[in-house]
């Protein structure tokens, strides 16, 4: 995965984490390792991780979100 994509993925990960930090199970270290791996395997690029992309529409959210309530909270 190119460095700019890694950097943007990290920014979006931190944004999701901040958004869910008041929840009991916000994304942690394991998800930080898993999500970029999934993104790379799916060939996700910068265009799908743009800041204008709503959090609930980020690719491979199943690698970040631990339950359906968290997904609903992102909407």
Name a few traits of the molecule.
51% helix, 0% strand, 3 helices, mainly alpha, 75 residues
Write the layout of secondary structure elements.
Layout: H1 3-20, H2 29-41, H3 68-74
Question: What does this molecule look like?
Answer:
- With 75 residues, the protein is an all-alpha fold.
- It has one domain.
- The chain is globular and about 30 Å long.
- The chain has three helices and no strands.
- 51% of the residues lie in helices and 0% in strands.
- The mean pLDDT is 92.
- The longest helix is centred in the N-terminal third of the chain and has 18 residues, at 3-20.
- Tell me, what's the shape? globular
Termini Cα gap: 28 Å
Residue ranges: pLDDT <50 for 5 or more in a row?
Answer: none
Overall pLDDT metric = 92
Summarize the structure.
The chain is mainly α and 75 residues long. The protein has helices at residues 3-20, 29-41, 68-74. The N and C termini lie far apart (28 Å).
């Amino acid at each position: 995965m190119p460095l700019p994509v890694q950097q943007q993925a990290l920014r979006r990960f931190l944004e999701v984490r901040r958004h869910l930090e008041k929840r009991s199970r916000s994304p942690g270290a394991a998800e930080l390792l898993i999500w970029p791996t999934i993104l790379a395997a799916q060939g996700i690029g910068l265009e799908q991780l743009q800041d204008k992309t709503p959090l609930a529409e980020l690719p491979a959210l199943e690698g970040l979100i631990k339950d359906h309530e968290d997904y609903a909270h992102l909407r």
